[in-house]
Amino acid sequence: MRKFLKADTKCGLQTVASVLIFIAWANPSFSQTAVPADQEAGQVQAPAIKSQKFDDWYYRCSGSEGTEACEVAQIAQVAKDGENVNVLTLAIAAAPAGSQGKGEKGRGEKGKGEKGKPGLTLTALLPLNVFLPSGLSIKADGKPVAKLDYRNCNQAGCWAQLALDTKTATALKKGSTAEGLVRLMNGQDVNIRFSLKGLQPALDELQSIAAK
């Protein structure tokens, strides 16, 4: 895994960056600490993080107004040796206008998704021991809805990404439970369960803000 694939679109780079923001700032309460007004000048301040929970999903924005990076995200964990270990991080971001690539079906013009809403890009982060050629398959309520190819791997893990067409986005929004199917380097197939509860209102919020 020494050779890493290069991200081939600006949209992809932005989405991966937003997922890194989510991972870096994730904590059990997703709370924010106020900065005292008399804080010493020159002290480095953490970027402002806005967070809103929609059942099992979080809608989060980072950055100043007008340049915010926003996403809807969820982290699936398993217990190992008494600790919770992240096995699947999912983040959905609104694609910038005009970022639609050739071959993406089910979208309108200029990166628009269903009913004129901004298109959506799903990014997934998994551990390093996955078998790259198999990709990541996602089922919603037991039915296959998407297949993501791995883009690259780094110290954080292996990244997979997919621009969601209208059919796939609708299936995820209407579902209640889902699972990610991955193959490990030893040939073992693993199903990682995650929830779709709250995804629809979270994405509605994401797309309404991105459309402004």
Which architecture of the domain at 51-96 and 117-211 would the CATH scheme give at its second level?
Answer: Sandwich
Give Rg in angstroms: 17 Å
Tell me the number of helical segments per DSSP (H or I, 4 or more residues long): 3
Quaternary structure type: single chain
Look at the structure and give the CATH class of the domain at 51-96 and 117-211.
Answer: Mainly Beta
* Share in β-strands: 35-45%
What's the mean pLDDT score?
A: 76
Question: What structural class results from the helix and strand content?
Answer: alpha+beta
The CATH homologous superfamily of the domain at 51-96 and 117-211 corresponds to Invasion associated locus B (IalB) protein
Order of helices and strands: HEEEEEEEEHEEH
The unreliable regions are 1-17, 23-42, 100-112
Number of strands: 10
What is the percent of helical residues?
10-25%
How would you describe the overall organization of this protein?
This protein has 212 residues and is of the alpha+beta class. It has a domain at 51-96 and 117-211: Immunoglobulin-like, CATH 2.60.40.1880. Helix content is 17%, strand content 39%. It has three helices and ten strands. The chain has a ten-stranded antiparallel β-sheet, with helices on both faces.
Task: Give the gist of this structure.
Helices cover 17% and strands 39% of the residues. The chain is an alpha+beta fold and 212 residues long.
Topology record:
Elements: H1 10-25, E1 49-54, E2 57-62, E3 69-80, E4 83-94, E5 120-126, E6 136-140, E7 143-154, E8 157-164, H2 166-174, E9 177-183, E10 189-195, H3 199-210
Antiparallel strand pairs: 1-2, 2-3, 3-4, 4-5, 5-8, 6-7, 6-9, 7-8, 9-10
